[in-house]
Amino acid sequence: MDVAISHHIDASEPDENGFYDYHYEYDIYEFERAGRTYFVRAYVDEPDQAAFMSCLEAGKARLLDADDLMHPLLLDAARYLHAAGKMQLDRLSEFDGYVRLELPAPPDRD
After folding, report:
1. 22: helix, coil or strand?
2. How would residue 105 be classed by pLDDT, with cut points 50, 70 and 90?
């Protein structure tokens, strides 16, 4: 799995007092393997949260679907994010906005 992380700031111009109408600071994680990429956004001021935004496959972007929830790349990405302290994982849904990402329990290992 290849992982790329980029830092972004989306902000209005400061007013005469140095205040912003809006200011968002976040990281975008890209998890890629075999022509599939998952994009995840994590806001700096919410250090324990991250949200899967979309999947890029065969040159087409889309929201996650039920098959993605069992895809090995997504599961590896979730483990990576958990190791980075992102314990609450969400996904962007077409009709419900952000919803909790419910992942299957890892298999028991003997």
Report:
1. coil
2. low
Q: Give the pLDDT mean for 16-21.
A: 88
Q: Which two tokens stand for residue 99?
A: 């919803």
CA 42 to chain centroid = 6
> Which residue do the tokens 């994590």 mark?
42
Place of tokens 């996650």: 64
Per-residue pLDDT averaged across 24-38, rounded? 97
CB 52 within 8 A of CB 38: yes
> CA 93 to CA 98: how far, in whole Å?
6
Q: Is the pTM of this model over 0.85?
A: yes
Length of the chain: 110
Alpha helices in 14-71 (DSSP H): none
What mean pLDDT comes out for the span 90-105?
Answer: 86
Which residues have CB under 8 Å from 26's CB, separation 6+? Answer: 7, 8, 10, 41, 42, 43, 44
**Cα gap 47→57, rounded to integer Å:** 28
